[in-house]
Specification:
Elements (H helix, E strand, L loop, with lengths): L12 H9 L3 H7 L3 H41 L7 H30 L8 H23 L4 H11 L1 H18 L3 H7 L1 H8 L1 H18 L5 H29 L7 H4 L2 H7 L1
Helix pairs in contact: 2-3, 3-4, 3-5, 4-5, 4-10, 4-11, 5-7, 6-7, 7-10, 10-11
This protein binds protoporphyrin IX containing FE (HEM).
Protoporphyrin IX containing FE binds next to helix 4, helix 5, helix 7 and helix 10.
GO cellular component, one term: plasma membrane
Subcellular location: Cell membrane; Membrane
Organism: Pandoraea terrigena
């Protein structure tokens, strides 16, 4: 994939470059025959790339902090009286937080106009899966000690909150496995995007998982906060999709259905 044809999860090339290069720069650079304008555009492009690399590095380190904290606490014997519970809860919470942050990228981008945010989405989604894998591994290894009969029992419905969490994790793993650019290319943008809409089901199942777990302890304050956050993030998408449909249905609308089905248009709703 060339530098300008972005990963579908990172938005279109148009969306990704427009704010940093400015609205008029591409037209000047492309066909006006003004070499200085082209050089300016290239320089702006390079500095934007450099800035984005720094931003990505910063977000990467920041997203790694919860894991580094767990490792540091483990090495210094500070995981508390029940280390397994500490690790399970910490990794579960960070899975959910990373999911919410990933889902927040599109609404924040739409409201703020900060298109470059889309370039962070894939990494954040992979971090959600990373913490989900640690969470699942903690359950299988430290909580259940590889007692597969008990695990299958839990997952198959004995403990519904585990069933919901497991379903969410399996879907998350599918999204992570299909995130490399080579896989996106092989699948085709549309099929990839259809599959990656599973993120919405994952978010709902994650909330159910948390809700059911805490319902047994009559302590729904925190799950309620996450439920409101996820409902707002998904609700905003539903509202925008309905508004777009209405705009397209208006007689004389210049946005044909064919265009609305394009990669660019779809990436805006995710
Ligand atoms: C997207 C996937 C998942 C998310 C977002 C998630 C999230 C969470 C959260 C937020 C908690 C509560 C943390 C707290 O008490 O503060 C939790 C607890 C827990 N989760 Fe998950 N989870 C996921 C998948 C799984 C899976 C796959 C399993 C096991 C098959 C699992 C097993 C557990 C267990 C055993 C607890 C602790 C229950 C307790 O302390 O009583 N979770 N999870």
């Amino acid at each position: 994939m060339s530098k300008t044809s972005r990963h579908p999860g990172e938005g279109s090339a148009v969306e990704a470059t427009a704010p940093t290069l400015g609205a008029t720069a591409p037209t000047l650079g492309a066909g006006s025959g003004l070499p200085s304008a082209g050089a300016d555009t290239r320089a702006a492009g390079h500095s934007a790339q450099r800035w984005l690399s720094w931003a990505k590095g910063g977000v990467f380190l920041f997203a790694l902090l919860p894991w580094l904290r767990l490792v540091a606490y483990g090495l210094t014997d500070r995981l508390g009286a029940n280390p397994v519970e500490f690790i399970t809860r910490s990794t579960g919470t960070w899975t959910l937080v990373m999911l919410c942050v990933t889902l927040a990228i599109t609404p924040v981008r739409r409201l703020s106009g900060m298109v470059w945010l889309l370039r962070l989405r894939r990494m954040l989604g992979l971090f959600a899966c990373f913490y989900g894998a640690l969470h699942f591994a903690t359950y299988v290894w430290l909580d259940q000690w590889f007692d597969w009969a008990s695990i299958v029992h839990d997952v198959s419905g004995k403990r519904p909150f585990i069933t919901a969490g497991f379903a969410a994790f399996v879907m998350m793993a599918a999204l992570a496995l299909t995130s490399p650019r080579a896989v996106v290319r092989r699948m085709g943008g549309r099929r990839w995007q259809r599959l990656h809409r599973l993120i919405y089901a994952i978010a709902v199942l994650a909330i159910l998982h948390y809700w059911w777990m805490k319902a047994g302890k009559n302590d729904l304050a925190q799950p309620a906060i996450y439920a409101i956050v996820v409902a707002s993030l998904l609700g905003a998408r539903v509202l925008w999709a309905l508004r777009r449909q209405r705009t397209q249905a208006l007689p004389g609308s210049s946005r044909s259905p064919a265009k609305s089905d394009s990669t660019v248009s779809r990436s805006r709703t995710r």
